[in-house]
Amino acid sequence: FKGGDTCEYLLSSGRFLGEKVWQPHSCMMHKYKNSEAKNCLIDKRVVFIGDSRIRQLFYSFIKLINPQVKEEGIKHGNIPFEDKSASIKVDFLWYPEVNGSMRQRIKSWTEGSVAKPHIIVVGAATWSIKIHNGSNEALAQYKINITSIAPLLEKLAISSDVYWVLQDPVYEDMLSESRKMITNEKIDAYNEAAVRILNSSSRNSKAKVKVFSVSKLIAQETIMKSADGLHLPESSRDTNAMILMNVYCNKIMKPIDGSCCQPQPPLTLIQKIAFCFFTLSIFGYLIISLIHRNNYRKNKSCTDLESGEEKKPAISTPNVSTLEMLLHCFCKLGLIMTYFYLCDRANLFMKENKFYTHSSFFIPIVYILVLGVFYTENTKETKVLNREQTDEWKGWMQLVILIYHISGASTFLPVYMHIRVLVAAYLFQTGYGHFSYFWIKGDFGVYRVCQVLFRLNFLVVVLCIVMDRPYQFYYFVPLVTVWFMIIYATLAVWPQIVQKKANGNCLWHFGLLLKLICLLTCIYFLSYSQGTFEKIFSFWPLSKCFELNGNVYEWWFRWKLDRYVVFHGMLFAFIYLALQKHQMISEGKGDPLFSSRVSNVLLFISIVSFLTYSIWASSCKNKTECNELHPSVSVVQILAFILIRNIPGYVRSVYSSFFAWFGKISLELFICQYHIWLAADTKGILVLIPGYPMFNVLVSTFIFVCVAHEISQITNDLAQIVVPKDNSTLLKRLLCIAGFFSGLHFFSAMQDQSRH
Fold it and tell me: 328 catalytic, yes or no?
């Protein structure tokens, strides 16, 4: 379903999500802050012309610029407003009827000597109905007057934005006796006349007077809350003012979560090069496949007519070369990236704002929990945090995070705090997993490092190119990448202490603890020295990776939020492996981890700790204060969960294959959601099938999961080709990768120069 003209949809159609959140048809509306409104309207003049309803809209509009404004102006007179700091002028001109006076005022702006307003908002009718007691003669005169004004408005619309506000319905039961003649039937007649005349007078669609009809839809839902049956409640007129702001400002400010009225961004130079590369890969793969298929057919076994026996061919199966495999991967990736681009960069599919309700978050959580329990199987091994268990852990956490994002649950603080623990748990696993590998294997080779870095970063690098986004935008991947390098540096730097060496001499354990203490000291220092942290990551080329919107503050905030949890993961791995080595824990099938008494005590403490953290998180009142405590206390719930999951032998011996399947592609799911499940870079929801929210989620989710799974397979295949085990070949590939990033930097610099 094509998105269509989102500006037209914004002005004419939509629905309420809940009581106060307005959702335009097919696009997302940005909520403008005062600073953003000022930046958009700097050096601009806005004029509202009409009656008391337009005056209401005027006040709501200027409150977006200055919330301190009070409605104290003359009721039946002109009201000026000026913001000198941004040179913004907004005027209300009292013209309650469409008559000669209004025509004269509008005509004055069409004459060359008078400065034209940048935005003109006009609307009036109820006074004409009231003064003339709803007579047909008044309606006929209204049509004549609009017919004379329409050409002037069309002329102004060539250089200014002109909006004709249709009349909102009234709540007839609440109208005073002096307004009883203002009926919805009369209002509809006046609106119909205005729309017909304005549309018929338009010869040039680009210079068309925009009809602001969405106010009618909003009023139909909210006019019952009106104080007098005629004027809209404050929340409704604020919505109208925000719509006006979106119509004018979105094309100037280009907010990420304001897709209405935004033109499709032009293709960058790097995007064009990427498009050419993927196109060539597709054609290259097709050509090689055809050649191989023809060769295979020629070499097929054929029957010897004389002996009646089959002759075996020299080649019995098609030989898949490295080049063909490479082209095959890029061919699939090219098609997938096309889908990414169409979903979140082209104005092809619709996008909608998120709207949180408790049911939209908790019902899917219960549903996936039931599915997860249903697919329970025995584990291959019963060690603490075995592979199946960690995959299961990643899987259910990822599904919860996905539901959290699509439901917009970040607005509900208790849910936000628990999701922060899940993100911390991922990083805990990073510390635990990589420490365990280096400690046990002692493999600090380049091959291992390159494999991990490639698998973590491949998809994000491709998306940075195709979707024209900075690396830091996908914050979780930079986070796990940097922490992997910190873990590697901590353990690889002299003296290299591994389990084999430590078993020979217990003093090496103290050496490793000293290394961990040094790491903790560095983390503590950087977390309280924002200036030092920003200086480190502001040096080129690190700045190219970690800057977002021209600074590294976002990166510092993300790093600081979970600064201790990787260290906690490393320390846990060290203690667990030491206990395992000295046979102080029992990991047999069905056996409790410790003696019955110790296990029961630890299990009780873990459950109490888990619940205590949840109670604290649920009682949070301020996100900033809770974020300050989170790095130090998140480990409590993580360790509690690990002990609850692993102390009872029967619990440790089973896992959910449903969750484990998702855990294997958790990284791809986390990254892909940005563009093909959510929309507008996670700010909204992708709508493939409008009008059917549940069916839309089912279809988009199915495609999203399939794509994530396919990208995981492509990444694994390419990792074998791009990062070979042979050191000399690997060195050549690394030189090629360095050349690729150098070229990318060169083209990026060219792009930035052309933009400036």
Answer: no
